[in-house]
Design brief:
Strand 3 and strand 4 (about 50) form a beta hairpin. About 55% of the residues lie in helices and about 5% in strands. The radius of gyration is 18 Å and the shape is elongated. It has 6 helices and 4 strands. The strands form 2 sheets. The protein has a two-stranded antiparallel ribbon. Helix 3 (about 65-80) packs across helix 5. By secondary structure, the chain is mostly helical.
């Protein structure tokens, strides 16, 4: 109910609840400790509603495919570089997203794009 809290929860909760039927091992479940799970229905922050994880997946691979590619690219690049994205990384992310679109979303395209990128190739390693 607090505005500061709800600003994040309104974005995250619908995605998390859509995945609630999967346990920690990724197995499907209909209840937890004898209790029914919360409804998996939700709405993306962009307004598109979904009834369950299947509809969420459909949204992500159709209407929001480029957003998904961009987010995944930024997160993996962050991990690979050991730092958050900077303005100078925008062209790298754009190029990798374009290659992902052309390849139909092959994960190997994402990995190769990051490995071959200038930020990854020229990253500074901490001196020991």
């Amino acid at each position: 109910e607090k505005p500061l809290c709800s600003s994040c929860h309104n974005r995250m909760d619908p995605l998390g609840l859509a995945l609630e039927n999967f346990n920690a091992m990724g197995l499907w479940r209909d209840q937890e400790r004898g209790q029914a799970l919360a409804s998996p229905a939700g709405q993306l922050v962009t307004g598109e509603p979904f009834a369950d994880v299947r509809e969420l997946k459909h949204l992500l691979v159709t209407a929001r495919r480029e957003d998904y590619y961009r987010c995944l690219t930024e997160k993996l690049l962050t991990y690979a570089l050991g730092r958050g994205p900077q303005p100078s990384d925008i062209t790298t992310v754009d190029a990798i997203v374009e290659k992902l679109e052309q390849s139909g979303g092959k994960f190997s395209t994402l990995i190769t794009g990051i490995i071959e990128s200038a930020p990854f190739q020229k990253r500074q390693r901490p001196s020991t």
